[in-house]
């Protein structure tokens, strides 16, 4: 789901004013746009349109990009182009935009003549065009750099990943099995405001439909999943065949319904499953493997958290659902875990990922097979999506590192200890003041800059703690 390259349209803007003076200018600048696309080939699959020299050209190009289901539009000034030709276009833009403030030659030399001035005059076209974007209320990113450098490719790649994540987010459906946890206030939000402002929508799925789907699954697909688990995990011999088959049917049933309803993220609540009366156990291992396949997930019916896990997976790599369990002041860290759901793609490389038989009183059901691991030590980032009321949303982000801390043998859940770069005290004071929620996504690596670009494009307030 989340490992394909971003697919970006390159919109090169110029005008026909200079054709008489420089008859070859359109072809020359078109070649320059193609060279820029080739420079970006490691970070995005680029579709380069012919130079847009009029309002009709620009609007036709962007319609083609939208119809091709691209992730975003990279705007390059091939010469100066008057912004009124693209003003209406930007007021109706549906795809994320980045304005690349670049020029063919990196330096001004004594050899330059009027032709060189014309080829390299993109900066004042960028100013006029950016002014039109601002007046149109368009959220956009800007990159000023030498185009034929790694720094340019890296920076555009960051925007392209954010564009890919945001474009997917705007059409996201989050399946909720049952209902959200009663009384959990930081997960509450206005569904209409969420879809208007950001795009994700909620699709409620009755637990009874999941139960029926489980029963209709053919035995061979269940066996296939169990065989795959035998090869991937260290499987607890205490798990019975019946326990594993029931868990497998839960996982396959959830994925079948997510596919049927077009949901790329979901949430289950233990009470909604437990109170139904037809289920034997909670789908713990299912959440872990579905996250590893690229689905967004959150517990307790938390749509906001499931949405941000989905965004994190597409923006940064594998998204790991977690929460802050307890502070450890001697190591200046926070124990991160949840009831038993976690993306095993972020597990340590030097320990096996285990599928265990694990007692769990929550839900008043039988023991749920659970995937257990410790999070890989190294740089990591937490992100929490906060509903502020109306159509205002905030993303609270903390960079830090997962410590190579001693094991906690009695903790039969995915876990790790996260040390914020600002320290536990300062981080938590700022997190709480910002209204950061108790469910969040963890991504490996320092990803605050990626999240900041995402927020810029999405119109979300970015708050780093």
What is the C-level CATH assignment of the largest domain? Answer: Alpha Beta
Low-confidence stretches: none
CATH architecture of the largest domain: Alpha-Beta Barrel
User: How helix-rich are the residues, as a percent range?
Assistant: 25-40%
Which strand-content bin applies to the residues? 15-25%
Please name the CATH topology of the largest domain: L-fucose Isomerase, Chain A, domain 3
Cα radius of gyration in angstroms: 25 Å
Counted by DSSP, the helix tally is: 15
Give the oligomeric state of the chains in this entry, treating copies of one chain as homo and distinct chains as hetero. Answer: single chain
Number of strands: 19
- Tally of domains: 2
* Strand-pairing-aware structural class: alpha/beta
Shape: elongated
Largest sheet: 6 strands, antiparallel, barrel
First CA to last CA: what distance? 30 Å
**How do the strands of the widest beta sheet line up side by side?**
11-12-17-16-15-18
Average predicted local confidence, pLDDT: 96
GO molecular function, one term: metal ion binding
Domain L-arabinose isomerase N-terminal: 15-169
Domain L-arabinose isomerase central: 196-311
Domain L-arabinose isomerase C-terminal: 319-461
